[in-house]
Automatic annotation (TrEMBL):
Residues 1-19 form the signal peptide. The keyword Transmembrane applies. It comes from Flavobacterium granuli. Keywords: Membrane, Signal, Transmembrane, Transmembrane helix. One of its GO terms (molecular function) is DNA-binding transcription factor activity. It comes from the Bacteria. The chain crosses the membrane at residues 371-388. InterPro entries: HTH_AraC, TPR-like_helical_dom_sf. Residues 437-539 form the HTH araC/xylS-type domain. This is Helix-turn-helix domain-containing protein.
C-alpha cells in the first residue's frame, strides 16, 4: 500500500514539475505491459485520474518509442479522458496529428470526431460541426457501423440545435435501432434525444411514449444515469400538453440532479419551463424568479438558445406593465445581446450544415491563416452591414406607415357591372354579395375571433367558392390576406391614435383584433407593414 502511494505522489510531483511529458519514463511495473493492457485500464470517462494518467503517459511513451502512430493517437485520446479540461483540446490536436500519419480512415475519422466533441463541450459549435463533417467524410467510407452511427448521432445533435427537427429525428431513429443491440448508454441517449425531437415537432404523445420507454429500458439494462433526463424531457412535454402542475413537479424534482451533474444547460432549461408553467397559471411572481435565472445563466455562462429567448420578452412585457423603466431597459438591453449571441451561434451553423453537410460538399483543404482572417473580417462586415440595413429599413418603413393615408375602400357596387362578365356567376348574385361585403367591412365583422372563409361566406350569404372568387376579383387578395389586412389596419389605427393600446402586450393586441394566436398576429403584422408590432410600438413611444 505504501509503495502504491509513493508511486502516485511521485507522479503528482513529476507532473507539476514537468508540464511537457516528452521526457516521461515508464515505471518498471508498467515497462513490460502491452497496449491492450493500457487500454483496458482506462475507463474513458471524463475525470482527472492520476492513476489512469500514469497508464496513458506510459502508453504514449511506448508508442513514441516504437514509432507506432496508431497507438500514439489512441494514447492521446486516453489522455483527453484522464486530464483536466484545459489540456483536452491540445491532446485532441495531437491525436489528430498522429492519426493522419496512418492510412486508417476509421482512426482519422475518429480523431476528427473527438476534436469536434471537445469544441462542442467548449460551446464552439461552429468548430465542432466542421470537425464532425470531416469525420463523416472519412467514416462513411468504412464498414465500422458503430462509428458511422456515432457520427450520425453528433450530426443529429447539431441539427436539433438548429431546429431541423425532422432531419434530426430520422437520424436519432437510426441510432436507436442500432445502439439498442450495441451500446446501452448510447441507446438511452438516442431515445432521450428522439423524445426531444418529437416534442419540438408537436407530437407530444410520441414524446411521452419515448420517455416512458427510456425509463423502462434504463431499468431493464440496470442503467439509471438517464432516468432524470427522461423525467426532465417529460416535464417539458407536460408543459406543452398544458399539464402545468405536472410539469412543475417533474422539473423541480430533477433540478438537483442537473446541479449534481454540473449540467447548467438542462438546469437552465428546467427553470425556464417551470417559470413558463407558473406564468401560464397566472402565478407571475413565482414565474419571475425562474425566468430571471435564464438571464443569470446567460450573464455567467453565455448560455442561450432560441426557445429560452422568450423569457426576456415576458420579463420586458411584465416590467412595461409595472412601469418599471429600469428593469424594462435592463432586459431590453440584455435581449439585444442575446440576439447577437444567437445570431453568432446559430446562423453560421445553419448555413454551414445546409450548404456543406446536407449537400456533402465538404472542404477538402483547410484555409490558410490569411484566408481565414479575411473570411472573419468579411463576415463581420456583412453582419454589421445587415444590421445597419435592417435599422434604416425599419426606420423608413415606420415613417411610411406613420404617413400612410388610410386606404379608401372603393364602392364595390359602383364598378362591378364592368367586370361581372369575367366571373361565371349570376350578375344579380354578384351584386348582392358585393353589398354584403361592404356591410361586412363597415360593421367591422372581420374583428370576430378566428374569422375564416367559412364564417365569412355565411355572413355574405353565399358559399365559400363564390366568396373567395369575388374577393379575389374585386379586392385583389386571397381571403386570408383580405381578412388579416383589415384586422391589422384596424389595430394600426388604434395604436396611432390611442395611447392606451401602446401598453398592450402582443397577446392583448392579438385578442383585440380577433386573431387566433399571438404568433398569427405578429406574422400578419409583419406581412402587412414589414415591421414587428413590438418595434412599431417602441417607436411610437419614443415619439
Amino acid at each position: 500500500m505504501t509503495k502504491k502511494y509513493l508511486v502516485i505522489l511521485w507522479l503528482c510531483l513529476y507532473h507539476y514539475a514537468h508540464a511537457q511529458h516528452h521526457n516521461f519514463i515508464i515505471p518498471d511495473s508498467l515497462s513490460t505491459r502491452d497496449y491492450n493492457y493500457f487500454s483496458k485500464n482506462i475507463q474513458y470517462e471524463e475525470k482527472d485520474s492520476i492513476k489512469e494518467r500514469l497508464y496513458a503517459y506510459s502508453w504514449l511513451t511506448k508508442a513514441k518509442r516504437e514509432k507506432n502512430f496508431a497507438q500514439k493517437a489512441l494514447a492521446y485520446k486516453a489522455l483527453i479522458y484522464t486530464t483536466n479540461k484545459k489540456l483536452q483540446l491540445s491532446y485532441a490536436d495531437s491525436m489528430l496529428t498522429a492519426a493522419k500519419r496512418t492510412a486508417d480512415l476509421e482512426l482519422i475519422g475518429s480523431a476528427y470526431m473527438t476534436k469536434g466533441i471537445q469544441h462542442y463541450d467548449a460551446k464552439e459549435k461552429l468548430e465542432a460541426l466542421e470537425n464532425y463533417m470531416i469525420a463523416d467524410e472519412y467514416i462513411s467510407k468504412t464498414t465500422n457501423h458503430y462509428l458511422i452511427h456515432k457520427i450520425k448521432y453528433t450530426i443529429a445533435q447539431i441539427k436539433y440545435t438548429l431546429e431541423f427537427y425532422d432531419d434530426a429525428s430520422l437520424l436519432f431513429q437510426e441510432c436507436v435501432k442500432y445502439f439498442r443491440k450495441n451500446n446501452e448508454r448510447a441507446y438511452l441517449n438516442s431515445l432521450h434525444s428522439l423524445g426531444l425531437c418529437y416534442n419540438r415537432l408537436g407530437n407530444y404523445e410520441a414524446c411521452s411514449q419515448v420517455n416512458q420507454q427510456g425509463l423502462n429500458e434504463g431499468l431493464r439494462v440496470k442503467n439509471t444515469e438517464m432516468q432524470a433526463y427522461f423525467l426532465h424531457s417529460e416535464g417539458i412535454n407536460q408543459y406543452f400538453k398544458h399539464n402545468y402542475p405536472d410539469a412543475i413537479e417533474k422539473l423541480t424534482a430533477v433540478v438537483a440532479e442537473m446541479k449534481k451533474n454540473h449540467d447548467f444547460a438542462n438546469e437552465t432549461t428546467a427553470y425556464f419551463y417551470i417559470g413558463k408553467s407558473y406564468w401560464a397559471k397566472k402565478s407571475h411572481q413565482k414565474a419571475l424568479a425562474y425566468l430571471k435565472k435564464i438571464d443569470e445563466a446567460f450573464q455567467k455562462q453565455k448560455y442561450i438558445r432560441p426557445d429560452l429567448r422568450e423569457a426576456y420578452e415576458l420579463l420586458i412585457e411584465y416590467y412595461q406593465q409595472q412601469n418599471n423603466k429600469e428593469l424594462e431597459l435592463y432586459y431590453s438591453s440584455s435581449l439585444i445581446k442575446v440576439d447577437q449571441q444567437l445570431h453568432k451561434d446559430f446562423k453560421q451553423l445553419s448555413g454551414k450544415i445546409l450548404k456543406e453537410y446536407d449537400t456533402k460538399k465538404l472542404l477538402q483543404n483547410q484555409k490558410n491563416s490569411e484566408q481565414y482572417w479575411i473570411g472573419v473580417v468579411s463576415l463581420m462586415t456583412l453582419i454589421i452591414g445587415l444590421l445597419g440595413r435592417r435599422h434604416f429599413k425599419n426606420k423608413r418603413l415606420f415613417q411610411e406607415l406613420m404617413h400612410r393615408i388610410p386606404e379608401k375602400v372603393p364602392s364595390l357596387v359602383s364598378y362591378h357591372s364592368a367586370r361581372e362578365n369575367e366571373l361565371d356567376i349570376n350578375p344579380e348574385l354578384i351584386a348582392t354579395i358585393l353589398k354584403n361585403i361592404e356591410k361586412f367591412e363597415y360593421t367591422k365583422k372581420y374583428l370576430e375571433k378566428d374569422m375564416t372563409l367559412a364564417k365569412l361566406a355565411i355572413l355574405l350569404n353565399t358559399n365559400m367558392k363564390y366568396a373567395s372568387k369575388i374577393i379575389l376579383h374585386y379586392r385583389n387578395k386571397r381571403t386570408v390576406d383580405y381578412i388579416n389586412n383589415l384586422k391589422i389596419d384596424h389595430i394600426i389605427a388604434l395604436l396611432k391614435n390611442e395611447n392606451k393600446y401602446r401598453k398592450y402586450t402582443n397577446k392583448a393586441l392579438s385578442d383585440e383584433c380577433g386573431f387566433g394566436s399571438t404568433q398569427n398576429f405578429t406574422r400578419a403584422f409583419n406581412n402587412r407593414t414589414g415591421l414587428s408590432p413590438t418595434y412599431f410600438i417602441s417607436r411610437l413611444r419614443s415619439q
